[in-house]
Amino acid sequence: MKNIEFKVVAKECCDPNECCVEPAETIKHEAEIANSELPIAIIGVGPIGLAAAAHLVNRKQKFILIEGGSQIAHNIREWGHVRLFSPWQYNIDKAAQTLLLNQGWNAPPPDVLPLGIEVVEQYLGPLAELPEIKPHIMLDSQVIAVSRENIDKMKSANREQSPFVLYIENLYECFSTL
Ligand SMILES: Cc1cc2nc3c(=O)[nH]c(=O)nc-3n(C[C@H](O)[C@H](O)[C@H](O)COP(=O)(O)OP(=O)(O)OC[C@H]3O[C@@H](n4cnc5c(N)ncnc54)[C@H](O)[C@@H]3O)c2cc1C
What we know:
The protein has 178 residues and is of the alpha/beta class. The protein is 25% helix and 20% strand. The chain has a single domain, classed as FAD/NAD(P)-binding domain (3-Layer(bba) Sandwich). The strands form two sheets. A four-stranded mixed sheet has the order 2-1-7-6. The chain has a three-stranded parallel sheet with strand order 3-4-5, covered by helices on one side. The longest helix has 14 residues, at 116-129. The protein is elongated, with a radius of gyration of 19 Å. InterPro entries: FAD/NAD-bd_sf.
């Protein structure tokens, strides 16, 4: 997804009665950036999101990774005790592997079936820590809607030229203002 701007909104857990702002005022900030400067937004920091980031590093494209959980690979961690049915050699993206090997990573044995948590600790974690990727990860940021700037159901002219708008629930944005 290219051409985006962000609207960070308060997390639903905020009780409007306890917030210092009205519900209608819960949009915390709106970063408007010229289209040409907008990054590609990758929603979800699991194996696919991180592999996409590795490919974008190779192509020198700007990106951000947006993860709803408090840690990368939030979903896989939920079943980290389960062994995969495919061995390591099929679980590692080639662009990601190249970036990791450049940083001195020890590739796991190709024929071994890893546990979910081993995929996180031995592959996805080191990948997310790479200097080319880590600064672009936003955690605790759940994308709740995606739209186009100034476009609605009644207006679709120039739709494809309009930047995407991501609505993000961000725990810290919410509480930092209370
Ligand atoms: C028990 C089990 C065993 C498996 N074994 C294998 C196997 O052996 N081989 C194999 O190839 N596949 C296996 N799979 C499937 C594999 O895990 C998935 O195909 C893979 O995780 C998909 O990667 P993904 O990055 O697309 O999604 P996910 O791993 O689900 O990651 C998505 C990430 O996006 C985040 N996210 C989701 N929605 C939002 C949002 N709106 N805003 C912000 N963040 C969001 C989630 O928190 C998560 O971190 C297995 C799956 C399970 C459940």
